[in-house]
Amino acid sequence: MKKVGFIGLGLMGQPMAINLLKAGYELTVYDRNEDKTAALVREGAAGAAGPQEVAEASEVIITMLPNSPHVLEVVFGEGGLYPVLRPGQYFVDMSSISPIAAQEIAEKLAKKGVAALDAPVSGGVEKAAAGTLAVMVGGTEEAFAAVKEVLSAMAGSLVLVGPAGAGQMCKLVNQMIVGVNIAILAEAFALGKKAGVNPENIFQAIRGGLAGSQCMEDKAPRMFSGNFAPGFRINLHAKDLGNVLETSRELHVAVPLTAQVMEMMQVLINDGQGGSDHGGLALFYEKLNSLSLKQEG
Ligand code: NAD
Question: Which domain holds residue 263?
Answer without folding.
Answer: 169-289
